[in-house]
Amino acid sequence: MPVTFSGWQVVEGRKKLHRGEEPERGQAYTMYHGTHMQNAHIIITNGFQRSKDGLLGEGVYISRNIEKAKCYPLSVDKKDRVIFKLRVQVGKVKKIDSDNHPLQKSWHQNGYDCAWVPPNSNITTIKSGREEDCVWDPSRIKIVDVACCMDGAKRKDLRKLIKSQGMSEGVCTLCHKDMGTGPHPIQNCWQCNKSICPFQWKHFCDQN
């Protein structure tokens, strides 16, 4: 009996960076940042601004754990949140893994570019046990996509703005993944003739 294949959806086998792995000096990582919808356009057009204070002092707060980013901003309805997908050059990293660490808020003054709180650390204020990162220089952070936004129209609008700013260069426009190893092999679907990337999580042909 012939089978007509007209799409796919990945439901297993998604490999994720091990969240307990310490960021290596000089490497680039995919990270996430949660913000209010009303701030999203400003961040895309003007870049990130350092928070004046926080658990790790002054800097831009991000995480490799998207679930951590989804919790921010605090006390904001999830429909008003936007989660940016980022590419971050971490530079020199300092691990902060205990309360009252001597460099908890002075890591940058001691020559570090990024502070990293590992998952399940001994810092009592992090109840979730999820990792947290703080980057001093906002220019180390590049927005590559909108990872989460409940409003589909606004998500599309923000993605257009990211592309217009040239921020998504090096990112596939179809699968929204980094193309650090080279361009992705874009082809036309053999059923509906739409452009597809083999790294997309799913593709379904139009049935019209």
Care to describe what's here?
Helices cover 13% and strands 24% of the residues. The chain is α+β, with helices and mostly antiparallel strands and 208 residues long. A four-stranded mixed β-sheet has the order 3-7-6-5, with no helix packed on it. Strands 2-4-8 form a three-stranded antiparallel β-sheet. The longest helix is centred in the last third of the chain and has 13 residues, at 152-164. The protein is elongated and about 60 Å long. The protein starts with 6 loop residues before the first strand and ends with a strand. The model is unreliable at 12-17 (pLDDT under 50).
Principal-axes shape call = elongated
State the distance separating the first and last CA atoms.
24 Å
Helical residue percent?
Answer: 10-25%
Model regions low in confidence, pLDDT < 50 over at least 5 residues:
12-17
Residue-averaged pLDDT: 86
Radius of gyration: 19 Å
The percentage of residues in β strands lies in 15-25%
Summary of the model, kept short:
It contains 3 helices and 11 strands. It has 208 residues and is an alpha+beta fold.
Write the layout of secondary structure elements.
Elements: E1 7-9, E2 28-36, H1 37-46, E3 60-62, H2 66-69, E4 81-89, E5 93-95, E6 114-117, E7 132-135, E8 141-148, H3 152-164, E9 187-188, E10 195-196, E11 202-204
Parallel strand pairs: 5-6
Antiparallel strand pairs: 1-11, 2-4, 3-7, 4-8, 6-7, 9-10
